[in-house]
Amino acid sequence: RAKKRGRSQYCYFALEMEEQAQSRAMLERDLRAALHLQQFTLHYQPVVDLASGTICGVEALLRWQHPERGFISPATFIPFAEQNGLIRELGEWVLWQACRDIADVRRRFPHLGYVAVNVSARQWRLQDMSALVGQVLNSTGLPAQQLVLEITEQSFIDDLAFVSRELRSLQLMDVRVLLDDFGTGYSSLSYLKRLPVHGLKIDRSFIHDVTEHPEGAALVRATLAIADSMKLAVVAEGVETSQQRDWLLGEDVRHAQGYLYARPMPLDELLALLEATHGRLTITEQPLQVVS
Ligand code: C2E
Ligand code: MG
Ligand code: MG
Ligand code: MG
User: Fold this and answer.
1) Which ligand ends up closest to the CA of 74?
2) pLDDT band of 49, cuts 50, 70, 90
3) Where do the EAL domain residues begin and end (predicted)?
4) For the whole model, what pTM was predicted?
5) Average per-residue pLDDT in the chain?
């Protein structure tokens, strides 16, 4: 190692870059194989009605169990799948699996609300989303009102008019669409103006700040005022403490998700939770696990 470093800096960086390129190539190869090897699963995180603690829906979150590298976070591989176009196949798989799973769960727990599926902005360009959604709802039997799509943003949507038309056809089908991670990156006011969405999800970085900094609270209040005047639904992401929950309740926020209530979990755990709680999560003063 020391010897390697002893060579020219250029050589050292070139080597590192080569290693990086190799590991990217490996990741790409493995990502393609993973779909066929069934290494992907979905976890579900409850979304609750803050006032009552009732579970009003679940968000489907993708998990990749790599045989050698272990668990790989979607935050790592989704941007990658977006770049190489694999997001199309992957996104289709997620939509089918989530709708099948939740249509099943609803046969046992008819009061479980919606399933929210993350759709990357790239997917709208790569496939006919409204046709796909129609097909999936048709064959899984999940009612359209029970499906929510969350638009996640890694890059600028280059054709807002096109996506906007797609969203309108989904609206006509009664499928709701939420703008995810609102306030961060590209998910911002200009999208709110141009895209017909049902509501927005306030990113957890903002929720974290509401009880920490007065400016943090001010930003969320401003977002809530915008949502209110545009008649948009709001979901607060990443609620971890009862102080945050109380603050949100004080601001009349209705829906939230976060570790305070439940972590994302495999389907069988979700079923056990619904069984044990009758769909109502009560929060003790000491949350079970709070991870900062
Ligand atoms: P997201 O859609 O904003 O999902 C919420 C993320 O916050 C999830 O991370 C969830 O596990 C995490 N989270 C929930 N509650 C808390 C909390 O109280 N505290 C903290 N610290 N985190 C919390 P995850 O599962 O790692 O997913 C990361 C991102 O990857 C998602 O962010 C979404 O943008 C993307 N993603 C996940 N699944 C899919 C998918 O099926 N398709 C696409 N296109 N993107 C996906
Ligand atoms: Mg999401
Ligand atoms: Mg989000
Ligand atoms: Mg987020």
Assistant:
1) 1
2) very high
3) 24-278
4) 0.91
5) 89
DSSP 118-145: EEEHHHHHHS-HHHHHHHHHHHH---GG
Could you report the predicted ipTM of this complex, rounded to two decimals?
0.98
Please answer whether residues 130 and 170 qualify as being in contact, where contact means their C-beta atoms are separated by less than 8 angstroms.
yes
Cα separation, 100 vs 109, in Å, equals 14
Contacts of 43 (CB under 8 A, 6+ apart): 60, 61, 63, 264, 265, 266
Q: Among all ligands shown, which has an atom nearest to the Cα of 64?
A: 1
Q: How much distance in Å is there from the Cα of 201 to the middle of ligand 3? A: 6
Q: Which two tokens stand for residue 173?
A: 């089908």
**For ligand 1, what atom is nearest to the CA of residue 257?**
15
Mutate to test the pocket of ligand 1, among 42, 152, 209, 239 (most ligand atoms within 8 A of CB): 152
**Tokens 């579900």 belong to which residue?**
44
Question: Whose CA is closest to 95, among 58, 136, 61?
Answer: 136
